[in-house]
Structure formats: structure tokens, C-alpha cells
Amino acid sequence: MKFIAAIDVMPIKEILDPQGKAVMLGLGNLGIQQIDTVRIGKHISIQLDAADEAEARTKIETACSKLLANLIMEEYTFTLQAL
Prior knowledge:
The protein is built from 2 helices and 3 strands, in the order E-H-E-H-E.
């Protein structure tokens, strides 16, 4: 079966996000006010083959925890959809 995973990797809330702060200041300079916080992360899309959804989830969990996210500073979430 083919699956597509949509993965979001974001800095954990306790970590300062300098990119987010820079964007927030830029928004203020553009006159866009009343922005509480901005967090910058990454979105990753992976298409994969797996025997079933459980195997696909295991593969994506492994990819996220060992390569795509630095678990000391980042957290991840993903959704999985059969194609």
C-alpha cells in the first residue's frame, strides 16, 4: 500500500525561537499588530510503501525520531493517509 505522511516539526515551547521573533518584529514593521507569538518550524511530506498502516506509522516514527527532528529542541506530529 502507498501512504503519504504530513509531518510538522516545531521547536518545543520552552525553547526561544529566534526566527519566530524576527518574523514577529517584521510583521510589526508592516503594521500588522496584535500578533501574540510566531513559531517557525518545518513541514515535511513523505510518500512511502508499507504493508499496512501500522508499518507505515513505525517507519515515520523512526524517521522523525532519528533524523527529521532534534528531540532535545523540537517536537513533531504527523498524519498518515492511504493513497
